[in-house]
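Archive record:
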Amino acid sequence: MSATTEEPNAGMFTLGDPLSAEPAEPIEVPEHQEWALPHGFAWVFPGEGNHDGLRRPVIMADGFNLGRSRLDWLYQGLEGGDYPFISELRRRGRDVILLGFEERSASILENAEAATAAILRTSAEQVGNTRLVVGGFSMGGIVTRYALAKLERQRMDHRTALYFSYDSPHRGASIPVGVQAFSYFIPFPNDFAKQMNSPAARQMLWRHYDKDTGKIGVAPERTEFLAALERVGNWPRIPKLIGVANGRADGVGLPDVAPGEVALRIDRIYPGTTFYTQAQGDEVTAAYLNRRFPKAEQTVTTSGFPELDGAPGGTLHTYRILADAMKKLGGTTDLRHEEVCFVPSVSAVAIRDIETQDDLYVNIGELAPDETELDEFLCSSETTAHTAVTEELGAWLIDRLPD
């Protein structure tokens, strides 16, 4: 029999943050206007008392996943947690513009065209002189950063007073390379592999597993994107730049995620496949992969990596998502670490690279304020899920919006 008929489809899932997760209950989205944009679209929610054109607008861009943005899910993610972010903005008379993309995993440069169009349309339709607030969640913060910087380089007035990023991977994000390799180990095309090999993933991941060579390194797309960012000045210079991180600032990582431990073992389906938390050293085993049809096994190793999985930062339920997918297909799992660091704190507040153990685990509070590329930032007092909107972070951000 073919591999397709023998091996269950283990790839009908993707890794996503809380803002892209399907809500447990039906969503009631308030009345809104929809804009069609190049490579994207937007939903416009008027602030309280605003009935005659855009006033005090806030543009907020969606983050990374596979496929078209689900702005209903994004709305629920921003509203349904501990802090009703959109309602609070609208209560203060802010018009909220949620920016989505036709393909979230497309190149950041392509999706920046949607952000640019949203900024220009907002500026053209605005009533009054209040300057814009523009930013985004996770990848959305990178997309809008590039769009604003490019507009400035082109000498176009974006009329933006404040740029914000919410747990955005300014210095890179991390998906365990063993997990990346597993997406291609599945012996047929699948959504998970498509997500891991997408342009946006290649641009944002600190290290990428190349499915064709089996090598682990900086993807060419990341090098090219960083060069493109450099060409537009790296950051917009006109607006104030602020950011928040879902990870802690004190250098304390995930207390239960020690390096070199079993994170997840799968049996029955992909029998004996085991993923380990990232450890330092050379030729360190990150994952052992095994499949039945067609028969194959592979050991994924790393050299010179810091302890990324337990680092201070916004977390992703990487191994829980993977374990749940395996169980739905009849597999058994031994899940020991549900979540690992996805966007390190030092990356989210653009203060250090994530190449070394010392930088990754640095106490940000002890660093000189001018080390960050942002004008102001806040890290969470406790480790929280990547892009989770907490009252601590959400209220801090809203309190800094210009009048």
Summary: Residues 63 and 139 are 5 Å apart (CA to CA).
